[in-house]
Amino acid sequence: MFLQDSGSPLMEQLSFFHDHALLILVIITVLVGQLLFSLFFNKYTHRFLLEGQTIEMIWTILPAVTLIFIALPSLRLIYILDEINNPILSIKSIGHQWYWSYEYSDFKNIEFDSYMIPINELKSFNFRLLDVDNRMVIPFESQIRLLVTSTDVIHSWTIPALGVKIDATPGRLNQVSFSTNRSGLFFGQCSEICGANHSFMPIVIESISSKYFINWISKMIEI
């Protein structure tokens, strides 16, 4: 209930799987609750009941079938999340204590750091503890490859609305592929406890059209 609106095809699939699993849980809860309710309030007895092979087969097979109905969509989703679909843009994100830096190596290696905006510098349109001075800008409806690493401790680059969570590990380069299906701002945070200021290294993605993205790249190259 009350999940964020999906901002990417990956998050849509995750939401569908969440609803599927939740429906199965509701069915199990209602069934078990009804059985317990009937056990508490009836006075049936069977002094000569020693075995019940039929009911034992039923309560062995039914949970196994239920697990299959959960496992198959889950396995499908795992492979979808790991798939890299011919990205048109590669961005490198580097975790530091306690900020992120980004490199657009496809465009003359544009580099910039992204710090949380301090509370005393917030504008009326900024979000407290979530907004940054330099956002990661991407074109929507385009496949993006994100390469993630860290310079000090383990961080985790996480954007809930896009269904993306990937660890930034020192000495290791991890990659994830995603795309956004609409323009807008998508907020995230480091989800790995990485030190004293773990809560103060937010992530902001600004998803814009390809035309505006090219203009933004041109301005960054001039700078």
TrEMBL record:
It is a multi-pass membrane protein. GO terms for biological process: ATP synthesis coupled electron transport. Residues 86-219 form the Cytochrome oxidase subunit II copper A binding domain. Its main location: mitochondrion. Binds a copper A center. Keywords: Copper, Electron transport, Magnesium, Membrane, Metal-binding, Mitochondrion, Mitochondrion inner membrane, Respiratory chain, Translocase, Transmembrane, Transmembrane helix, Transport. InterPro entries: CcO_II, CcO_II-like_C, CcO_II_C, Copper_CuA, Cupredoxin, Cyt_c_oxidase_su2, Cyt_c_oxidase_su2_TM_dom, Cyt_c_oxidase_su2_TM_sf. Its cofactor is Cu cation. It catalyses: 4 Fe(II)-[cytochrome c] + O2 + 8 H(+)(in) = 4 Fe(III)-[cytochrome c] + 2 H2O + 4 H(+)(out). The chain crosses the membrane at residues 20-41, 61-81. Component of the cytochrome c oxidase (complex IV, CIV), a multisubunit enzyme composed of a catalytic core of 3 subunits and several supernumerary subunits. The complex exists as a monomer or a dimer and forms supercomplexes (SCs) in the inner mitochondrial membrane with ubiquinol-cytochrome c oxidoreductase (cytochrome b-c1 complex, complex III, CIII). PANTHER family: CYTOCHROME C OXIDASE SUBUNIT 2 (PTHR22888:SF9), CYTOCHROME C OXIDASE, SUBUNIT II (PTHR22888). Component of the cytochrome c oxidase, the last enzyme in the mitochondrial electron transport chain which drives oxidative phosphorylation. The respiratory chain contains 3 multisubunit complexes succinate dehydrogenase (complex II, CII), ubiquinol-cytochrome c oxidoreductase (cytochrome b-c1 complex, complex III, CIII) and cytochrome c oxidase (complex IV, CIV), that cooperate to transfer electrons derived from NADH and succinate to molecular oxygen, creating an electrochemical gradient over the inner membrane that drives transmembrane transport and the ATP synthase. This is Cytochrome c oxidase subunit 2. It comes from Rhizophagus aeneus.
